[in-house]
Amino acid sequence: MSNLDQIKKPIANEMEIFEHKFRDSMKSSVPLLDRITHYIVKRKGKQMRPMFVFFSAGMFGGINESTFRAASLIELLHTATLVHDDVVDDSLERRGFFSLNALWKNKIAVLVGDYLLSKGLLLSVENKDFDLLRLVSTAVKVMSEGELLQIEKARRLDIKEEIYFEIIRQKTASLIASCCASGACSAGAEEETIMRAHRFGELIGIAFQIKDDLFDYGPDGVIGKPTGIDIKESKMTLPLIHALTQTDTSTRKKIINIIRNHADENKRVREVIAFVKDSGGIQYATAKMNEYQALAFDLLGTFPDNTYRQSLKELVRFTTERKY
């Protein structure tokens, strides 16, 4: 049993029910759409987002029908953004599977993304879950803004640390924040509690993204993506941003030149990785990640003490100590 299966135990039954409900929420009378949504369900990832929803709801008063809808809404909207992302990035793979656009071409992939968005909106409207809809729609809006901010800044390859944190707060942390907030909301928590749950999710999301950045510099075979993939895609990660601030102008220019013009050469990418490691970029990013994890734990300590809170703590640990 994996670490994650162990953590999931208190909500294993709910997660099983959720899978059926999520599948039902995507149903369509169009055979092509049904084939595609069946493919989406089959290649699901670690399902950490629904776990945050259920643990949060359990911690603040109990899991109910509204909680299942909150988890489905988040998965529908998130899946829609992933499908659209693959089209935007021209990605042919996601998590080792072919992307929708690789199998069914861009036009169909965009339409399927639109369909999933509308199914999420209807699921909420038909059940009058307007608070949930507001929370999750806000997250999708913020995620889009984060992506656009990253595109705008990435061209310059010299982004400051505060801009980096703003981008990851929007792109990654806003969705985990909405998971925790909508779980609390579905359990009937008060507005102030929902906002604290949102902040808790935001802190975890930031730590989660820094961990993802660190994978780019880790030893091969231990991680979920090949070393240097972010460098090859000219993505500015925290270890790299920090390393660039610690060096002289000529080295900085040299490193930026490699990323801009030689990112497809493995030897040059290894040079960037060595530079980041030698400049203390890894230690710095790890310390920052631990800082956000500690802030999340402090906030978690103010929430009701029960099994779900303990599981949330384990899930936070998993996000920052995972090997993939």
Question: How would you explain this protein's 3D organization?
Answer:
The protein has one domain: Farnesyl Diphosphate Synthase (Orthogonal Bundle), CATH 1.10.600. The chain starts with a helix and ends with a helix. About 2% of the residues have low confidence. It contains 15 helices and 2 strands. Helix 5 runs parallel beside helix 7, helix 11 packs across helix 13 and helix 11 packs across helix 14. Strand 1 and strand 2 form a beta hairpin. The longest helix has 27 residues. The chain is globular and about 60 Å long. Strands 1-2 form a two-stranded antiparallel sheet. The chain is mostly helical and 324 residues long.
Spell out the key features of this protein:
324 residues, mainly alpha, Farnesyl Diphosphate Synthase, 15 helices, 2 strands
Largest sheet: 2 strands, antiparallel
Strand content: under 5%
Shape: globular
Query: Which fold name is given in CATH as the topology?
Result: Farnesyl Diphosphate Synthase
Distance between the first and last residues' Cα: 16 Å
